[in-house]
Amino acid sequence: MKIGELARRTGASPRAIRHYEKAGLLSAGRLFNGYRDFGDEAVAEVKHVVRMIRLGFSLEEIATFPACMFTGGAAVICPVAMQAHRDKLEEIETLIAELEERRDRLLATLKAAAQQSAEHARTASRNQEATGP
């Protein structure tokens, strides 16, 4: 099948599919006119790559997964790749914790700035009242 058909059947863009092929995650033959010719198995492979990207894996990481990861559908994680999934989960949890810390620091900074602005406004108002019109 041509790349446009593969894109239609998977929801991935032709550009993304070319990118996956360049990364070595897909292979295609060539038709006499130079167009890519993907086999039927490419549908499942593209869908798998898209799933892995949505889980946070890079193309480089996906390329290291054993062949068993490309069989069995969405819910199957072959035992060999289980540790990679655990490592990715730990990485994501670390990022979440770091983002929560940043959010807390930013909220504290905004709160302090708001209090400082309010105090400055009160001081300016008192000074204006003291000096009169």
Automatic annotation (TrEMBL):
Xref: SUPFAM superfamilies: Putative DNA-binding domain
Keywords: Coiled coil, DNA-binding, Transcription, Transcription regulation
Transmembrane parts of this sequence: none
Domain of life assignment: Bacteria
Coiled-coil segments: 82-116
Pfam families to which the protein is assigned, alphabetical: MerR_1
Domain HTH merR-type: 1-68
Transcription recorded as keyword: yes
Entries under InterPro entries matching the protein: DNA-bd_dom_put_sf, MerR-type_HTH_dom, MerR_fam
PANTHER family: HEAVY METAL-DEPENDENT TRANSCRIPTIONAL REGULATOR HI_0293-RELATED, REDOX-CYCLING DRUG-SENSING TRANSCRIPTIONAL ACTIVATOR SOXR
Name of the molecule in the record: MerR family transcriptional regulator
Organism: Nannocystis radixulma
Taxonomic path: Bacteria, Pseudomonadati, Myxococcota, Polyangia, Nannocystales
